[in-house]
Design the sequence.
């Protein structure tokens, strides 16, 4: 105990050799304590040991030698270990919550995509049924516009008819589809929008 007190007084006085001896004496024991709590492969073990010294050295001047200095250093080290463990627990809980939100969002997106695909398929099937009932001219213009997604200009060039004729034929074909779809008007509006 007297030897420890003498060493601490030399450290407080700023003796570099005493500091080196102090670190050499307590670092291995603090390292073992830290690895016991955090694990042998933990990347923060060295940081915790270093932080223990960073906290302890300025406070050495206030240390009362009623117990071995290692007991005091160990308490500082343990508090740092517990703080790291609490921080990891919070990070893990936060990561788990983030993962849960991500998985829920993905599930919702997947359901929406499936719903959109089903709706699209229903629209296409309904449109196919209705197109069979149209005259060939109307069926052709609807197929070019809504089936292939061509612009009025492209339809005009494909059919070699004026753009005004494309517009009027398309309007007549849409009106025919609306009349044919009286039993399901919501579908007619969706496929012709």
Sequence:
């Amino acid at each position: 105990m007297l030897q420890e007190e003498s060493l601490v007084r030399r450290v407080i006085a700023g003796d570099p050799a005493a500091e080196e001896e102090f670190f050499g004496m307590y670092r291995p024991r603090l390292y073992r304590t830290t690895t016991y709590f955090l694990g042998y492969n933990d990347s923060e073990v060295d940081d915790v040991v270093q932080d223990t010294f960073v906290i302890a050295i300025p406070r050495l001047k206030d240390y009362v030698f009623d117990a071995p200095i290692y007991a005091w250093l160990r308490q500082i080290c343990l508090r740092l270990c517990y703080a790291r463990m609490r921080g990891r627990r919070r990070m893990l809980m936060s990561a788990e919550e983030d993962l849960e939100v991500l998985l829920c969002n993905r599930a919702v997106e997947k359901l929406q995509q499936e719903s959109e695909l089903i709706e699209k398929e229903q629209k296409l099937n309904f449109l196919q049924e209705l197109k069979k009932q149209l005259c060939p001219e109307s069926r052709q213009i609807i197929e070019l516009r809504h089936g292939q997604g061509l612009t009025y200009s492209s339809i005009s060039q494909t059919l070699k008819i004026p753009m005004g004729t494309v517009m009027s034929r398309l309007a007549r074909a849409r009106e025919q589809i609306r009349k044919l779809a009286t039993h399901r008007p919501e579908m007619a509006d969706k496929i012709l929008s």
Observations:
- The chain has eight helices and no strands.
- The mean pLDDT is 82.
- The chain has two domains: 2-93, 133-191.
